[in-house]
Amino acid sequence: MRYAVLHRALEREQEAVVAARLRYRGSEAARILGLAQVAYGDLRGLLVGLTEDVLDRAPAEGEWSARETMEHTVGVERSYRANVVHALGRGPDEPLVLAPEQRPQPDPLDIAGDGTSIAIRLGMRRSETDTELGGITDEQLALPSRWGEYDVDIRFRLHRFASHLIEHTVQCERALEAAGASFADARRVVRRISVLRAMHERITPRDELARLDAGSPSFHFPCHTGPRHDAGLGRVDPPRCRVAVRPDACRARRGRAARRDQCALRCGLSAV
């Protein structure tokens, strides 16, 4: 049952990744941001289904809990975007550094609720980033910016989105392991499916995504998150995503491990 439900869904996503990438002709900026979406898919797969108490347990005194790590992660996603927008629009006499009053202010909703809720909010912030920056031209990638004490360009800044998400996915995973979070087999496979979906959800046509979801009777992504771009950055769709596994998927499973896996699978990502 586990193989039929999860591993076939995994294989179908693999097929979709190959098909989408064979026909994709996106810009360099869109491809760089695609790396960030893949990094987000891994973090999404890690967070979904986690309870609030697990997110709030610090691994050790003075160290960040997973929720505190996500507060930083979402905040930096928004700050990086604001800095790139500043670099794109600044005049020759304006400073490279974004003024403090122009930086995004924290939004408590970004880290409210359980792991699924936080994954949704980060997905919405990622959609905002890709919608605003996905149309950057190759020439604009060389525009100057400032990162900390270093003079950099916009290309460098775009690559920072993915690397920062990966950095704090590792930190979140370490905090969750210390907090006693359970990562049974089904959860681990679902995480890989989330990564694969992130590799093509921006560039696969909506009807193909619907076909994928309809073909997986127990695991499906009824829609996707963020801007659609079949060749570069095309029309923009509303940021909506849902991940769900129907309860009968694990009905045949028995015992404590089965209950843990079923909880991991019953994760709803539904943008509000």
The amount of beta strand, in percent, is under 5%
Discrete helix count: 9
Spatial strand sequence of the major β-sheet: 1-2
Helical content band:
55-70%
CATH class: Mainly Alpha
Shape: flat
Major sheet summary line? 2 strands, antiparallel
CATH homologous superfamily annotation: dinb family like domain
Could you characterize what this model shows?
- The protein is mainly alpha-helical.
- Helix content is 56%, strand content 4%.
- The chain has one domain: dinb family like domain (Four Helix Bundle (Hemerythrin (Met), subunit A)), CATH 1.20.120.450.
- The strands form 2 sheets. Strands 1-2 form a two-stranded antiparallel ribbon. It has a two-stranded antiparallel sheet with strand order 3-4.
- The longest helix has 25 residues, at 154-178.
Outline the secondary-structure elements.
Blueprint: H1 2-23, H2 28-47, H3 52-56, H4 66-89, H5 115-133, E1 144-147, E2 150-153, H6 154-178, H7 185-200, H8 206-215, E3 219-220, E4 244-245, H9 255-265
Structural features:
272 residues, mainly alpha, two-stranded antiparallel ribbon, 4 strands, flat
How would you concisely characterize the structure shown here?
With 272 residues, this protein is mostly helical. Helix content is 56%, strand content 4%.
